[in-house]
Write a structure and sequence with these properties.
Layout lengths: L39 E8 L18 H17 L11 E7 L8 H4 L9 H9 L3 E3 L9 H9 L7 E2 L3 E2 L4 H8 L3 E2 L1 E6 L2 E9 L13 E2 L3 H13 L4 E7 L3 H10 L5 E5 L32 E4 L5 E5 L7 E9 L5 E4 L4 E4 L12 H19 L2 E5 L3 E2 L12 H16 L1 H4 L6 E5 L8 E2 L2 E4 H7 L5 E8 L1 H11 L11 E4 L1 E5 L7 E2 L5 E3 L4 E6 L4 E4 L2 E2 L5 E6 H4 L13 E6 H12 L3 E2 L12 E3 L5 E2 L8 E2 L51 H13 L45
Parallel strand pairs: 1-2, 2-3, 3-4, 4-6, 8-10, 10-11, 11-13, 17-32, 19-30, 24-33
Antiparallel strand pairs: 1-14, 5-9, 7-8, 12-13, 14-15, 14-16, 17-21, 18-20, 19-23, 22-30, 22-31, 24-27, 25-26, 27-28, 28-29, 34-35
GO molecular function, one term: UDP-sugar diphosphatase activity
GO cellular component, one term: outer membrane-bounded periplasmic space
Keywords: Hydrolase, Membrane, Nucleotide-binding, Signal, Transmembrane, Transmembrane helix
């Protein structure tokens, strides 16, 4: 195991947790190893968070993409095995291991292509061609629940094990069967040129708070991982890699400090970009700043473990944009001597001096059919907007009311009311959409909106869910949760329909446990008024009255983002939230989003102060006005249809998820690029590039019939016992 790890002088280390470098690696070599020599050189090729970005990097079609990534990975594997780029101190005895640390897919338009009836699992095809020695579990693998994840694993070659030392899948039959076959395991051992390389996996413990693992149980990290490392060590495996999906680099650092016997860690979930000064980056990318030190993250980041040994930690951005290359030089005892100074991210480029050609099989089996599918979505207009729609995150839907947030909340309320009778629930009076579930992370310009735009806004498999008869005190608790983190950005910040409220961010914020138990009642919500004029909070106090039914998505209803519903019964009412948005646009709004109903800056549904704007003109209609001081942007709210028309509705493209355009997980603040028309042009460019053509395609797509996928069929809604959560957004780095 690694007693001594010292990188070459090219590596710049950052942060208080980082180990200082020695003047020269050779000064720390064991006495029985010749200075400057290594007995074995292992190149660790790694990726993380591809997240179904199968076609190209979201911001630039000339970079990324599964087909180019596969070509580059193959080229690096060949050159590293041959040693054609070997540097000083590397051994002629050498080998390569390739790994991926999770989030192999993500709900979105590219993923949705795989959910078409009879379609293969395109992400699994791309992963299979990568020929990884091991992959880790990620949180997004559970976005559609354990059964879809089991389908994905089953589509991989048996030579690609899924490793997770702190995960118990015994409660899920499909995953348990794969574990029994050895397809899922705590670790695996790769045989490389006579050397045994142990690869251990780990997954984020609070998994249920950000996705839908159902009966999958995730333990804490250090204990289970250390036990597996010790077991491998006892079996004379003397080189061990940890591939973990812990959501951010500081978590990885904490874990590394507590472990022993791990030679290197490959991180996932945080989307950090690590690089050194000479490393080429994808246009628009910047090296991530270390949260602790404020310095750019060099490649690798090195920290001391529990024994005082140094451990390199690496990650490689996201979305198929980079292949990480970590060159590790070991002595004859299996101890790590140095990290090669040519280690770093290698960008996946289709242009310039470092361009690679797309892998022909991935191009034919993945790129072509997925491009055709996404082009169809981009060509189907569902509405025209008179105003730009703001889906930015910070400032934006995670910090304040925006017109796109209101539109999304209105869509939920519209579907909840439309489908209430069919599903035997009372009509909801309040709609809640957590800001983290609005994922386009940009401004959609005024003009046409397409089906692809609706997927970009509402990408996940979340179902519209009605939570009946919530006591008014608990309604206030929900509103308090929505503003508890303000002014900081939080995926739990809520966008609302059917209610206006005012809050004071200087007052005490609510504190709530992961189980939804309120330990510190919030005092921020000062006034709340339903759109029929009913006052439910006045001067910070709850006004007595009847319970109120709420419509939200099933992730939030089940306690996601720590919304304090506290296991309240809820009913899924026949539509995904993307389907609700599409149906609201095409039906209730008749294809027109007016600047009057959805002004830029919001209509005053959520304001800072003591008095909420007062809706006038009846339920969900008329100008919202403050009786003492008019709001900056007075505007009526649209009136969702009060009753069902043709039974449960979800729109012609009801189905799982949407894409991840832009970088909604990058955690960056500020205004983000405009999407919409720009995104469509990128898709069209991709289509032209592969000769797919741009003609209109058959739009009556058959969806797989399954509860929780958005398919509207004859089956009754699931019981409370049958319901499983579906993922929404977590903090920005997720």
């Amino acid at each position: 195991m690694s007693r001594l790890v010292r990188a070459t002088g090219a590596l710049i280390l950052t942060g208080a947790l980082v180990v200082p470098l020695a003047p020269a690696a050779s000064a720390y070599a064991p006495t029985d190893t010749p200075v400057g020599e290594a007995a074995f050189t292992l190149t660790l090729l790694h990726g993380n968070d591809p997240e179904s970005a199968l076609l190209h990097a979201s911001a630039d079609p000339d970079f990324g993409g599964a087909a180019r990534y596969t070509t580059l990975l193959d080229q690096l594997r060949d050159s590293e095995n041959a040693g054609t780029e070997a540097g000083d101190g590397e051994s002629a005895h050498r080998g390569v291991v390739a790994v991926n640390s999770g989030d192999l897919y993500l709900p979105g338009p590219e993923f949705a292509a795989s959910r078409e009836e009879g379609a293969p699992f395109y992400d699994a095809i791309a992963t299979s061609h990568a020929e990884y020695d091991a992959i880790s579990m990620g949180n997004h693998e559970f976005d559609f629940g354990p059964d879809v994840y089991a389908e994905f694993i089953g589509a991989l070659p048996e030579s690609t094990p899924v490793v997770a030392a702190n995960v118990d899948v015994s409660g899920e039959a499909a995953l348990a069967a794969l574990e029994a076959e050895g397809r899922i395991a705590p670790s695996t051992v790769a045989e490389v040129e006579g050397e045994r390389i142990g690869i251990v996996g780990a997954l984020y413990p609070p998994l249920a708070s950000i996705t839908s693992p159902r009966d999958v149980v995730v333990d804490e990290v250090v204990g289970p991982v250390q036990a597996e490392v010790d077991r491998l060590t006892a079996e004379d495996v003397d080189k061990i890699i940890l591939i973990s999906h812990l959501q951010n680099i500081t978590y990885e650092e904490r874990v590394a400090k507590e472990l022993t016997g791990v030679d290197a860690m490959v991180a996932g979930g945080g989307h950090e970009v690590m690089a050194n000064p000479d490393d080429a980056l994808v246009p628009g990318d910047e090296v991530t700043v270390h949260p602790g030190s404020g310095e750019p993250l060099s490649y690798p980041l090195v920290v001391d473990n529990a024994d005082g040994d140094a451990v390199p930690i690496v990650t490689a951005g996201s979305n198929y944009k980079y292949v990480g290359r970590l060159v590790l030089n070991f002595d004859a005892a299996g101890d790590l001597l140095t990290v090669g100074d040519r280690s770093g991210p290698v960008r996946v480029s289709g242009t310039g001096d470092d361009a690679v050609e797309p892998h022909p099989e991935v191009e034919a089996q993945v790129t072509k059919p997925v491009t055709d599918y996404v082009a169809e979505l981009a060509e189907t207009e569902v509405a025209r907007s008179e105003v730009a729609l703001d889906g930015t995150q910070n400032p934006g839907v995670r910090t304040q009311e925006t017109n796109l947030g209101s539109l999304m909340a209105d869509a939920l309320l519209d579907t909840g009311r439309r489908n209430a009778d069919e599903y035997g629930v009372p009509e909801p009076r309040i709609g809640i959409q957590n800001g983290g579930g609005i994922r386009n992370a940009s401004v959609i310009p005024a003009g046409p909106l397409t089906v692809l735009d609706t997927y970009s806004v509402a990408p996940f498999a979340n179902q519209v869910a009605v939570v009946p008869e919530i006591p008014r005190g608990q309604i206030k608790e929900l509103l308090e949760r929505g503003v508890a983190s303000a002014p900081a950005a939080d995926g739990g910040f809520m966008q609302v329909a059917g209610v206006n409220f005012a809050y004071d961010p200087e007052r005490t914020a609510q504190v709530v446990t992961e189980d939804g138990e309120v330990t510190t009642p919030g005092e921020r919500v000062r006034n709340a008024i339903l759109h029929d004029g009913t006052v439910i909070v006045e001067d910070g106090e709850v006004v007595d009255g009847d319970a109120i039914s709420v419509v939200t998505n099933d992730f939030s209803a089940a306690g996601g983002d720590m919304y304090p519903f506290r296991d309240a019964d809820f009913t899924v009412v026949g539509s995904t939230y993307q389907g609700a948005l599409e149906r609201f646009l095409t039906g209730t709004l008749d294809g027109r989003i007016s600047a009057e109903d959805y002004p830029e800056g919001g209509a005053g549904r959520i304001v800072i102060g003591e008095k909420a704007t007062v809706p006038s003109g009846g339920d969900d209609g008329g100008d919202d006005t403050d009786p003492t001081e008019p709001p900056a942007s007075p505007s009526p709210s649209p009136s969702p249809s009060p009753s069902p028309t043709d039974g449960p509705t979800g729109g012609p493209t009801d189905g799982p998820g949407s894409g991840k355009p832009g970088s909604p997980d990058d955690g960056k603040g500020g205004t983000l690029p405009v999407t919409g028309g720009a995104l469509t042009s990128l898709i069209v460019a991709a289509v032209l590039a592969i000769g797919a053509g741009g003609g209109a395609l058959y739009l009556s797509r058959k969806r797989r019939s399954a509860t929780g996928t958005g398919e509207i069929g004859a089956d009754p809604p699931p019981s409370a016992a049958e319901r499983g959560r579906t993922v929404n957004a977590g903090p920005p780095e997720w």
